Amino acid sequence: MDYGTKPLGREKLSLWLMLTPTLIGLAFGVLGSIVATIALSFTHWDLLTPPKWAGLANFIALFNDPKLIKAFTNTFLFSLLYVPSVVVISLLVAVLLNRKIRGVSIFRTIYFLPAVTSAVATALVWNMIYGKDTGILNYIIESFGGKGVCWLCTNNVLLALIIVNVWGAIGEGMIIFLAGLTAVPREYYEAATLDGAGGSQQFFRITLPLVTPSIFFQTLMSTINAFQAYDYIYMLTRRGQGDSSFPVVVYSIYRNAWTFFNYGGASAQAIELAIFIILLMIFYLWLERRYVVYE
Amino acid sequence: MIRKILALLVTLTFVLSACGGKTGTTGGGLVTITFSAWGAPEELAVWNQIVADFEAANTNIKVNVEVSDWGAYWDKLKTQLAASTPPDIFAMDAPLFLDYQSRGVLLNLQPYVDQNPDMLKDVYPQTLSAYQTSDGYYGLPRDFQTIVLFYNKDMFDAAGMAYPTSDWTWEDLRTAAKQLTKDTSGDGKIDQYGFVFDQWDMEPGWSEAIWAYGGDIVNADHTKTLIGDPAARQAWQLLYDMVFVDKSVPDANTIGQYGGDLFQAKVAAMMPMGHWAVPGYNTGGFKYDVAPMPKGPSGQATSVNSAGFVVAKATKHPQEAFDFIKFVLSQSGQTRLAELGFACPVLKTVAESPIFLQQSGSTLNQQVFLDSLAFAHMKPVFKGYDEWASVVGDGMGAVWRGEADLNTTLNDIVAQADAVLAKNK
User: Which residues in chain A have Cβ-Cβ distances shorter than 8 Å to B75?
Assistant: First the structure.
């Protein structure tokens, strides 16, 4: 694993100097907050009076809080559907847009647009699409003789949220896969064509194995995004004063800290979420060693 | 090399600390204080105007104004308090007052009030009580909100119905709401609802009905939640039946698709609301007016809540901070606030004068907001209010979505809400 050139002598100094701003930011901003969060999770802290030692109370409370359990269930169900959908659909879109077709850059731009548009604004538009009496989607369904669906009601809300979030994430996934696809040497396909391999054979035998690094990377990123998903979900399910009909974990952390004066409990929830993500990452890295092909 | 990095760090620290530190005395005896409030951009303009008036009268004081939207305001305020750099004066919402006062971050204003015995003489007493503690005032109201019944005159006219009166009962409201609920486009879906209320927040929502039916929200020493008592349940049942039997009030899923205020969206004909909505409705392109909230078996009832000012205990300039509050509560400060039109002035002489009653470009019956004080209950103020309100508001969500039984949900909510009260004792 030796990449690039090694800095020598005076180069090292300027290298460190140039890295310093980022390193300071990391040390104080990221590392500092991680350490603070861990420390705070063992205290009762309302932000305004000094923290009181709580031992493991905040961690025990995690298992007795029905709201938090609901939030974790929601987050897991969401991730389970979101991650494979994003990976498969954005790979398909990337493959489709990796050809010589007219206006390919226009299509690529269209698919990438959601990634650069304000989530709050697009969520409001989706709210107009999903409305059960006033929505565009039900208008279309009903004009074909179908029966309107209450998209954001409890029994359909997960599906509705997956659609919006996947739609919003395809653009970024597509970019990752396009980069991966461009790296596949053209000669492989030429050789396969000469040997008489068809399109689907070429995809499963050449393309898919060679983009496994991109698939791995995209799965990892989507998982992290799924566990931290918030904006579309909140905007589409919010009720008065910050309640949501589909609360997720990030939301629970925010609310405990900033609304309920419970920074200790919120820190414990953040750590629990981090532990879940870390465990998943370890599992992914194990998968990577087994299945990912590096040339 | 490490030494060089250290040197760089030290330099950076100096640079950064030179940027910090904003409040304090500057040369020439000029005192700078910071004032922070939530509000819309137009409110910032009015605060700047009030500050300009104040600075003209107090040339040794400079006031920095910070206005943020509601959510950002509280997050920022808490961070500033935790970092011991709070604004000298900041806005407070009465229900949340004890969450701050009980944690010892507010200055006791009683000594300063005592030096100005006349300053509260003309203030509506109902607006003062929220900020009163056993050892005096830790805050003072700047304006108040009574909840009244807003009604869309265009919809009443189209239905050929008489407008709501001060004699209305909740049953009258229910009957009218049924008549005003219509499928105007004939597609089998309701396009116009007779009534809507906030299904989360008690203030423009459901507390008025509970009080009118003789119930209450929490007991006097804030140890028991009373919204599950028999009288309160009568009120809940009435609201529930309006949503699910009469269908004259949209359920939570229906409200969600409008993404905002259904009265302003011209979807609902009547709604309990406070004065803060008036500037928005005035630009809504429809005719509306207000009537008092209806009567119940236990008489007429509504809710009153006051927004106020508190001073940070950590302030270096308590006297100057108090002087500013005193100015906002004066005739000239209250007049400016009344002109803004987001709330009712707490000073009787301003509220009961043309300044408030006849606002330019509006024929709104402003008197209703003042008259409502006579039968208004104070929006509850207790420690842990936000968490308690979330237990109730979130819990009722399933009922208003039509997924849960009203009575079992109330039983569950009361138990959880009492646990929050116990935790915050």
Answer: 258
Q: Tell me if chain B has a CB within 8 Å of the CB of A191.
A: no
A193 and chain B: CB distance < 8 Å anywhere?
no
Six-digit token pair at A147?
A: 């029966």
User: What residues in A contact B259, CB-CB < 8 Å?
Assistant: 124, 127-128
Taking contacts as CB-CB distances below 8 angstroms, the residues of chain B near A131 are 257-258
Together in a domain, B298 and B309: no
C-alpha to C-alpha distance for B292 and B280, rounded to whole angstroms: 20
Interface mutation vs chain A, best among B257, B258, B386, most A CBs within 10 Å: B257
Distance (Å) from the alpha carbon of A10 to chain B's nearest alpha carbon: 10
- Domain region containing A69: 18-291
Tally of domains within chain B: 2
Our CA angle for B44, B46, B48, nearest 5°, is 70
How far apart are the C-alpha atoms of B71 and B82, rounded to whole Å?
17
Query: How sure is the predictor about B13, in pLDDT bands with cuts at 50, 70 and 90?
Result: very low
3-state secondary structure of B113: helix
Residue A196 tokens, joined: 């008489």
Summarize pLDDT for B228-263 with one digit per residue, the tens: 999 999 999 999 999 999 999 999 999 988 877 899
Over the stretch B336-384, which tens digit does the pLDDT of each residue have? 888 888 899 999 999 999 999 987 777 899 999 999 999 999 999 999 9
Confirm whether A277 is domain-assigned. yes
B104 touches chain A (CB under 8 A): yes
What are the beta bridge partners of residue B33? B63
